[in-house]
C-alpha cells in the first residue's frame, strides 16, 4: 500500500510517503511555514519517493490536538488533495501518532498547546481518559491512580515536574517514529479511511481565543 501523509499539529509541518509498510521519504518544515512551504514539501516527498498521485492508495492526516494554524492548514491541504486525486483520507489523532510503534500497558501521552496548556490522554488496558487545559487540572482529571508507575510520551519538563510533585513514577519516552507524518503514513495502512471528507475535522483539544472557520 502506498500512502502520503501530512501533519501540522505537532510543532513542525511534515509530509511522508510509505510504501509496502516502509517509509520511503519524509521531510519536515519549521513551525509557521506550512502556508508558504506546505505544497512544495508534498511535491518534494513525492519526488523523493518516485511516487505519483495515481499510484497512491490513500492519504493520511493528523487531525490533532495540536497547534491551531498548522493543524488547519495541513487538514485543508490533505482534504483538497484527496478530493482532487480521488483518494480516501485516513484521519489520525496526535496521541496515536506519538504512541505509534510503542508497546505500552499504561501510558500518558501529552500534546503541548499554549504555554502551560496541554491536551493529555491516559490509556490502560481497561480505560481511556483525556482532557485539555492547564497542566494541574488536566493531570487531576486523567490520572485516577496518581501513584501507579506509567510511561509518559511527549511530555515537556513542566509536565514531568508536575508528575514528580505528585510522587508518580514515570518513564519518559520520546516518540519512536518521527516526523509525525511518518507515523501517520505507517498507521494509515491499518486504519479505516473516513466515509466522507466532510467527516475529517480538526481536534483542537481546546478552543482558540477566536473561533476558527470550519474546514
N- to C-terminal distance: 28 Å
Structural class label: alpha/beta
Work out the helix count: 6
The total tally of domains equals 2
Average pLDDT taken over every residue: 91
Q: Give the topology string: H per helix, E per strand.
A: EEEHEHEHEEEHEHEH
CATH class value of the largest domain: Alpha Beta
What CATH architecture of the largest domain do you see?
Answer: 2-Layer Sandwich
Q: Please indicate the percent range of residues in DSSP E strands (runs of 2 or more).
A: 25-35%
Biggest beta sheet summary: 5 strands, mixed
- Low-confidence regions: none
Defining key terms:
alpha/beta; Nucleotidyltransferase, domain 5; 6 helices; five-stranded mixed β-sheet; 215 residues; 10 strands
Describe this structure in words.
It is elongated, with a radius of gyration of 17 Å. The longest helix is centred in the middle third of the chain and has 18 residues. It has 215 residues and is an alpha/beta fold. Strands 3-2-1-4-5 form a five-stranded mixed β-sheet, sandwiched between helices. A five-stranded mixed β-sheet has the order 8-7-6-9-10. A hairpin with a 4-residue loop joins strand 7 and strand 8. Helix 1 crosses helix 2. The protein has two domains: 117 residues, 2-Layer Sandwich (Nucleotidyltransferase, domain 5); 72 residues, ATPase, nucleotide binding domain (Nucleotidyltransferase, domain 5), CATH 3.30.420.40. The mean pLDDT is 91. The protein contains six helices and ten strands.
Amino acid at each position: 500500500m502506498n500512502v502520503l501523509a501530512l501533519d501540522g499539529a505537532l510543532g513542525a509541518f511534515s509530509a511522508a510517503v510509505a510504501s509496502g509498510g516502509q517509509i520511503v521519504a519524509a521531510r519536515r518544515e519549521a513551525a509557521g511555514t506550512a502556508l508558504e512551504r506546505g505544497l512544495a514539501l508534498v511535491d518534494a516527498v513525492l519526488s523523493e519517493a518516485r511516487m505519483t498521485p495515481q499510484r497512491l492508495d490513500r492519504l493520511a492526516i493528523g487531525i490533532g490536538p495540536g497547534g491551531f494554524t498548522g493543524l488547519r492548514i495541513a487538514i485543508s491541504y490533505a482534504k483538497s488533495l484527496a478530493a482532487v486525486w480521488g483518494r480516501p483520507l485516513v484521519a489520525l489523532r496526535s496521541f496515536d501518532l506519538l504512541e505509534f510503534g510503542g508497546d505500552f500497558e499504561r501510558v500518558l501521552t501529552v500534546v503541548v498547546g499554549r504555554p502551560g496548556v496541554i491536551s493529555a490522554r491516559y490509556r490502560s488496558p481497561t480505560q481511556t481518559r483525556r482532557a485539555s487545559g492547564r497542566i494541574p487540572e488536566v493531570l487531576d482529571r486523567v490520572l485516577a491512580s496518581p501513584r501507579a508507575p506509567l510511561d509518559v510520551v511527549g511530555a515537556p519538563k513542566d509536565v514531568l515536574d508536575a508528575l514528580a510533585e505528585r510522587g508518580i513514577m514515570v518513564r519518559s519516552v520520546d516518540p519512536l517514529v518521527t516526523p509525525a507524518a511518518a507515523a501517520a503514513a505507517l498507521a494509515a495502512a491499518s486504519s479505516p479511511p473516513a466515509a466522507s471528507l466532510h467527516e475529517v475535522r480538526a481536534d483542537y483539544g481546546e478552543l482558540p481565543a477566536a473561533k476558527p472557520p470550519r474546514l
